Amino acid sequence: MIEPLRWGILGAAKFARQHMGPAIHEADDAVLAAIATRDVARAEPFRAFVPGIAVYDSYEALLASPNIDAVYIPLPNHLHVDWTLRALAAGKHVLTEKPVALQEAEVDQLIAARDTAGRLAAEAFMIVHHPQWQFARALVQDGAIGELRHVQGGFSFDNSAEPQNIRNRAETAGGALRDIGVYPFGATRYVTGAEPERLQSVLTRGEGVDVTAHVQTQFPGFTFTCYVSMRMHPYQEMVFHGTRGVLRLTAPFNANVSSEAQVHLTRSGHPESLWRFTVERQYRLQVEAFGRSARDGTPYPCPLEWSRGTIAMVDAALREG
Question: Which domains does the chain have, with CATH numbers?
Answer without folding.
Answer: 5-124 (3.40.50.720), 127-280 (3.30.360.10)
